[in-house]
Amino acid sequence: MVDFIIVGRGLAATVMAHSLHQQHLSFKLIGPHAETNSSLVAGGIWNPIVFKRLTKSWLANDLVPELNRFYSACEKDLGQTLLCQRSLVKPFVEEQEKALWTKKATGELSDFLDPKIYTETSEQFVNCKISNAYGAVKQSGNINMAAFINGSAEFFKSSYHNELVDHSLLTIEEDHVSYKGLKAKNILFCEGYLVKNNPYFNWIPLKPAKGEVFTIESNDLKLNNCIFNKNGFLMDLGNKRYKVGATYAWDDLTEEPTEAGASELHNKLKQLISCDYTLIKHAAGIRPSSIDRRPIIGAHPQYKNLFIFNGLGTKGVMLAPYFAKNFVNFYLEKESIHEEANVKRFYKNYAATQSS
Ligand SMILES: Cc1cc2nc3c(=O)[nH]c(=O)nc-3n(C[C@H](O)[C@H](O)[C@H](O)COP(=O)(O)OP(=O)(O)OC[C@H]3O[C@@H](n4cnc5c(N)ncnc54)[C@H](O)[C@@H]3O)c2cc1C
To answer: Is residue 51 part of a domain?
Structure first.
C-alpha cells in the first residue's frame, strides 16, 4: 500500500509528487498524458511584483526562496535545467512612475526591484516598444514547464498511470482507499479546473479563467534573455522563438484556442514589438483560479483520507512549491495549513450540499 494516490498530471500533481518523494512518502500518480493542459500552456513565469499597484505579491518573501530551493532540487533529480532566472522589464508610460519605482526600489521593495531607471535601450532590445525608460524586476524568471512535467513523468515512470480517474470506481475505507486494485492510505486530488467533475470536491468554488498564448518566430527581435511586460508578456524562448501572452476569459471555458484570443494576442504584439513575426503555435488552457485568489488545500470535511491541492490560479509556479511543502508538513503533523489557503474556509459549501 502506498501513502498517496495523486490524481492529475499538471503542475500541482507534479510538484506534489516531488514533495512527497523528498520526504520519503510513496505515491502512485494517475493522470493522462496531454499535449496541453493549463500547466503546459503556461508561460511558467514567476513575478514577485504586482505591477498594477507596484506592491509585493502575496507571500513573495517566502515563496521565491522556496521555489528556488525546490526547482533546484528537481533539476538535480531530473538532470535538466528547469529554472531560468531573468529580469522582467517594465517600461514606464508616465513620468511619475519613475519616482514611485525609485522610492519603492530603495525602500519596501528593495529585494525585488532594481533601483536603476534604465534609459539606454538600443543595444539591449531591438524592435521592442520601449519609448521612455524602463525598470527591471529582480528575482524573477521562468520554469521550463514541459521539461519539468514531462521530465518528472520519465523520472517517476514506474509510479505513473496514464489514464483519467473514474471517481465512481474509488472505494473509501476508514484507513485506506482503493482504485482499480491500487491501495493507498490517502488520495490527493490535483485536477485543476476539472475538479468540477469530482463528486467528492465539486463544491469547491473555483472561478476558472481561460488563457491563450502564442509562440512566434522573428529574426528581427532582440530581448536579451529578459521578459518584456507591457499589458502582456513577451518571453525569449531561444532560437528566435518567443512566447506571447496571455488572454483572460471567464465566460468561455472550452479548451480550444479561439479567433477572439488570436486577435487579442496580435493586438498585444502590436503594443509590444515593431517588427514582423511568424505565428508558430496558438494554445489555450484553463487556469484553476479560486474565488478569493488563494490556493485550496487540505482534507475533505467528511473523509479524512481524501485531500485536495488546487486553486493555483495565475501564479502556480510560485505558489506550488511552498504550499506542497506546507501540505506535506501538515500531513506529517509538523504544521497546520496556512489559514488563507486551507480548504476549511469552504466547508460551509460542502455542508450546504449535504442539507439540500
Ligand atoms: C495561458 C496561460 C498562461 C499562464 N501563465 C502562467 C505563468 O506564466 N506563471 C504561472 O505561475 N502560472 C501561469 N498560468 C497558470 C498555471 O498554468 C496554473 O497555475 C497551473 O498550471 C495549474 O496547475 P494544476 O496542476 O492545478 O492544473 P492543470 O495544469 O490544469 O492540471 C490538472 C491536471 O489534472 C488532470 N485531471 C483532471 N481530472 C482528472 C481525472 N479525473 N483523472 C486524472 N487526471 C485528471 C488533467 O488531465 C491535468 O493533467 C497560466 C495559465 C494559462 C492558461
So the answer is: no
The DSSP output letter for 337 is: P
pLDDT score recorded for residue 15: 98
Query: Which domain range does residue 348 map to?
Result: 2-40+146-205+291-355
Interval 229-249: pLDDT, tens: 999 999 999 999 999 999 999
Residue 321, C-alpha cell as written in the block: 512549491
**45 part of a folded domain:** no
User: Phi and psi of 69, rounded to 5°?
Assistant: -60, -50
| CA separation for the pair 176, 185 (Å, rounded) | 4
pTM exceeds cut of 0.90: yes
Domain boundary residue among 236, 263, 287? 287
The pick from 5, 9, 36, 39 for probing ligand 1's pocket by mutation, whose C-beta has the most ligand atoms within 8 angstroms, reads: 39
Q: φ, ψ for residue 303 (rounded to 5)? A: -100, 110
308 lines ligand 1 (CB under 6 A): no
Closest CA to 220 of 251, 196, 242: 242
Confidence of residue 309 (pLDDT cuts 50, 70, 90): very high
